Structures are given as C-alpha cells and as structure tokens.
Amino acid sequence: MKMGNSSFVAIALLMSVVVLCNGGKTSSYVRKLIQNPVDMPLDSDAFAIPPGYNAPQQVHITQGDHVGQAMIISWVTVDEPGSNEVIYWSNSSLQNFTAEGEVFTYTYYNYTSGFIHHTNITNLEFNTTYFYVVGIGNTTRQFWFTTPPEVGIDVPYTFGIIGDLGQTFDSNTTLTHYQNSNGSTLLYVGDLSYADDYPYHDNVRWDTWGRFTERSAAYQPWIWTAGNHEIDFDLQIGETQPFKPFSNRYHTPYESSQRTSTLQYKWLTAELPKIDRTETSWLIVLMHAPWYNSYYSHYMEGEPMRVVFESLFIKYKVDVVFAGHVHAYERSERVSNDKYNITNGICTPVKDISAPVYITNGDGGNQEGLSINMTQPQPSYSAYREASFGHGTLEIKNRTHAHYSWNRNQDGYAVEADKLWLFNRYWNPRDDSTIHIP
C-alpha cells in the first residue's frame, strides 16, 4: 500500500527476542501511581449512542486501495439495515456522488451484532477534502476526510502510531493526545477493543470501542493490524471461527494487492518485490508482537518466525517496523540476528545499518496495565525503553529523512520523551544510531 511517499505492509506476528548486555537508556520517569487502568463506565460520554432512529454509529474509515484514491467507509446501524449508500462530495465541487456497499451481521455466543456497513468509494482526487453522509433515509450523519497527496518520492506525510488501546481512562488520554498531534493517518498495530478480556468475549465492548474511536477514525484513515486479542477463538463457548468480530467490523483493502488467502510468507515474498523504491521511498512494516523486546512480558514468543522473516526485511531495506503487544515503549537500534538459527548457538544481535529500526508502541492504555519488568542490564540493541502510556508520530520529510517521536501521557498532557531522525535505507543508508553498539 502506498500513501504519499510512504509504503508499508501490515502483518500480525507474535515475535520477540531478548539478549542481555549493556545497552541504551532506560527512562528514569516514575509515574505517580502504578496500577491497572480503569475502564470508562458504559454510560460514559465517550461511548454515547448518537440520537435519532437508526442513527449510524461506530463510523470509521480506512484506505481502500494502494495509492490513496479510495476509502472504505464503515458504520453500524442498530434498528434496521437501512441504506448502505454513501453520498460524498469534494470541498472544491458541488457535485454529489453516491456509492453503494454491503451489509454484514454476525452472532457471537449470546450476542447478535448490529448491521455493519462497508462501502468503498473510489476515483478520489489526491490531497482533497471530501465530505460524506451516511444513514440515508433515516437519521443522517455527516463527516469529512482528506485524501493523501499523490504518490511521490519526496512528498511529506505524517503518521500516528497507537497499539493496544482498549477503552480505559488512560486510553481516552492517549486518543486525545493523538488527536492534538499533526498525524494525518493512524497506523494501528493491533489489539483493539479487548472484548475477549470480558466474560464470554462480551461483544458489547466492540460496540463501545467503535463509538469511542469514532471521533478520530471517522475523519482520517486508521490502518488496521490484527493482534492476539482479535482472534476471539473460544471452544468453551462454541466459537470456532477465529477473528470473527474483527473481520466483520474492520475491513482492509487486501484485494488491492491481488492476493486473498495465501499463506503469510508466500504473500510477503510476493508483495515486497513489487515496491518500487524509486517511486515509493519509505517502507514501513506493521506487526503486532515485537521481535526485539527487553521486557519480561511476551519473552521469546515468536523467535522461530523472526528466523524466517528477518532476512526479508534486510534484503528489501525496510526502514522501520512498528509493533505493539508489549504494554510499554521501546526503540531499538539498527540490528539484525539473521545469522542465528536453532543449531548454531549464536544468538547475539549485531549492528546492521541495513536493518530496520524496531519500535514497540503497545502502550495505548488498555485495562491489563503496563509491562513494568525489564531485563537487566539493558540489552545492547535497546536504545530507549519506558513503561508508560503514549503514542508515536512519524513525520516523513522527503526521500532521505523522517522524524520519529514518542509522546508520553504525563499528568494530562503529552510529553515528547523519545525522538530521533531516521535515514532512509534505500536513499540515505547512513548510520543513524543513537548509542554505540560493540
């Protein structure tokens, strides 16, 4: 998928690796009180149901093609299916257009969903603000979004990064801080509603999460990566279809890659060579679980998959990898461990300027709380780590430079706790390390 001058692939993997040696900086910031976050009550304003008969709710959008000229618009109606039409127009034209989509429903244990609408509007102009209306025939609601600029090698664009959000008071702070940033599209690295943490995977929590995130997701694309909390597989209550709520509610433009249900490795090996770095300068990968992780949480979960995939990231010059899963923040140096396999016994990552920077943003604020136990001493690959909630931003400046920052939730306002300049691996493969790695 291309957006502005950025390109990324989204895959959900469970991977991590820890090596102990002297590393970078562990934040000295100490929160006033370490405790599990508290869910917002179900009658919170953050979960408010819009007024009116069959009013659309849980409105969210995501990019609908590879280049940014389509948008998938999704919403839920409760009283009846209603119209699946979207009326839309640009801010530079008085001409209205109409697109027709599909409606889905599903059942999960003792829950029946509302009517879930997905409509892909196409042939949009680049860098243009569009208004759109849903709920035709009953209660209508109007929203807007701005398409990305045309794909170009030096086109600037700013992404936000959030993972493992949930629906607590801390989640609310994270989302508010992100809304006050300059992000134009959110890269979401998995674990959305945490409905499976409630009895019988309470799918009402999918509805509340959709209404909670609408204030951002209805106005800019959220690019989805599924996490382990989206699997929703539970034989004890007779639910044998994995990803059922997620796949019904959150559609992705997988058809644009002309791939369907091929195995992940086959898909990735076919997808990466398609990316023309002379046209699409930045290559970003989204996954759920980090490969390089110096917290005790999720230790060594996906090491066999790192062994399989890491060499591809180096070969195709991936610039940065964003992950979640670990409920904390961490940024790596450019290292690789692709020489290690189960038999040779060499398991120390080494400096590799051809490798991506790995960044864990699993700190959205969900009710499970922070991962606070870190390996000691800090591993050499780990440049910065902190057990706090927050969000990230990635500002792509041109083909050679991008600026990344991580913004901690502190006392009601966002604090830029970590930042660095990233040098593009294809166009500017200079050493952008922030610590010395022996």
What does this structure look like?
The protein is α+β, with helices and mostly antiparallel strands and 438 residues long. Helix content is 12%, strand content 29%. It has helices spanning 169-179, 204-217, 244-249, 264-271, 303-315, and strands at residues 2-3, 6-10, 25-26, 57-63, 71-77, 85-90, 97-100, 102-104, 107-108, 111-112, 115-121, 129-134, 141-146, 157-162, 185-188, 222-224, 282-286, 320-323, 329-332, 335-336, 350-351, 357-361, 382-386, 390-396, 401-410, 413-423. Residues 355-412 form the Purple acid phosphatase C-terminal domain. Residues 56-147 form the Purple acid phosphatase N-terminal domain. Keywords: Glycoprotein, Hydrolase, Iron, Metal-binding, Signal, Zinc. Its EC number is 3.1.3.2.
Write the layout of secondary structure elements.
Blueprint: E1 2-3, E2 6-10, E3 25-26, E4 57-63, E5 71-77, E6 85-90, E7 97-100, E8 102-104, E9 107-108, E10 111-112, E11 115-121, E12 129-134, E13 141-146, E14 157-162, H1 169-179, E15 185-188, H2 204-217, E16 222-224, H3 244-249, H4 264-271, E17 282-286, H5 303-315, E18 320-323, E19 329-332, E20 335-336, E21 350-351, E22 357-361, E23 382-386, E24 390-396, E25 401-410, E26 413-423
Parallel strand pairs: 2-17, 3-23, 14-15, 15-16, 17-18, 18-22
Antiparallel strand pairs: 1-2, 4-5, 5-11, 6-7, 6-12, 8-11, 9-10, 12-13, 14-24, 19-22, 19-23, 20-21, 24-25, 25-26
